[in-house]
Design brief:
This protein is of the alpha/beta class. Helix content is about 40%, strand content about 15%. Strands 8-17-16-15-14-13-12-9-10-11 form a 10-stranded mixed β-sheet, sandwiched between helices. Helix 9 (about 255-270) packs across helix 17 and helix 14 (about 375-380) packs across helix 16. The protein is elongated, with a radius of gyration of 26 Å. The model has no long low-confidence stretch (mean pLDDT about 90).
Length: about 500
Amino acid sequence: MARAFDRYVSDQCGVPSLLLMENAGRGAALSIHERLGPGSRVLCVCGVGNNGGDGLVVARQLACRGHSVRVLLVGLVEQLAPDARVNFEAWQGVGGEVRLLATGADASDALEPLWHDLDAVVDGLFGTGLSRDLSGRFRALIDSLNAAGLRVFALDLPSGMNADTGAVMGAAVRASVTLTFGHPKPGLLTSVATDFTGELVLCDLGVPRELGPAREPRARWIEQEDVRGWLVPRSRSTHKGRSGRVLIVAGSAGKTGAALLASGAALRGGAGLVTICTFAEVAKSLDQRVVEVMTRCIDPDRIAASLDDALEGVDVVVVGPGLGLSEAARDVVDHLVWAASCPKVLDADALTHLSRRGHDLVSAAGPCLLTPHPGELARLLGVTAAEVEADRFGALERACELTRQTVLLKGPHTLIGEPGTPPWVTSAGHPVLASGGSGDVLAGMCGALAVDMPLLRAGAAASFLHGQAAQLWVRAHAGADRGLLARELSDFLPEARARLASTRQ
């Protein structure tokens, strides 16, 4: 869609492609300058296509901001695309230095000197038009750059990455920052791409984003402004009974922690009253540990009746964290899915009980938000986790169509979708979330937010705030990338929400 958008803006809107290139390069250069500081030594590696043209604009703009900039052109001058050729001549016209990479320069001893005495490299080698795996000098160049350990700024997407799937095409640049133009490319928002994109920054092209092909996007990237607009301040007359009653149906022998984590997150997420509903032996254990949360027992001899009693007055039910895989647990899940009319968040063991029964969710008694990780979604669809990760957008679409429900697929870029609409993507996560129990926290947050929001919005907002809380924890722990205890995550949720609210216009 990126190339179609550019063509539409140029052909239908009359915005010259050369101006789009200038706007892209100027925006990227500003972001690079802000991250490097003045006087840095930068090498812009440029191909002969339009991505290389973007790199040449960046070189000129960085030089204007006082940086020491050189350009490496990988290819022949006569091969340059028309707009790239204009910017090549402009770079030379202002006295810019250019080095050509010879066709045979693919040996490591020939490439290694390129990276000496540099503070950063700008990757403008290949953009969205790459259609085949890289080999020869291109692969050698990328391998050498990755081995140099320098800070790398990729333009639009890391060279060698498939723009649609995120797959590595032979070799791909490992960027510190990816400066993408106009709209994020779908491939940038996949799990496989995460180790190559680094920080993802959206650069303005100087035209409205909602033009032509972008009116029907493949996905919507959720940003801070979106979530801020969804979070409505409480009225002064609010009390606990009007702030949402959330029922957490969770916990089993050896898994009581999941129930505690989900319930704590529901409270921290804003629910007024939270109750854990679980089996009698588990409730007895929980009663010794809970303070703000209430408990109720599931009677194994009258599961349906005891659940119906617990559901009275409840706004949202969260089902599954640590519930176990027993027959009784399956009966609990089935009754809640097909008898409880209130919104439901189905997580963890609830999803396992629904494996290969996703089509039955079409007849669920009320709206459901499914929150699977790739393995759980794979079991729901009857495929492998690898197949889900190979095409996350496609897997999400199939799950929404199969279940006719809202689905949240967890990952570094979390996808949230419902039948018939483009998915939403949140990218606020952090590697520190790779810790047991963080998914239980997310489920509880979804339950709290679903009190006031439709399930699609609740899932997106919860995912965003979940990631923001993780980043706050990281800052509070000197930038640590591991060591988070899931219960600590909930403690940062009020601050994450307050920080969004404090920037409200």
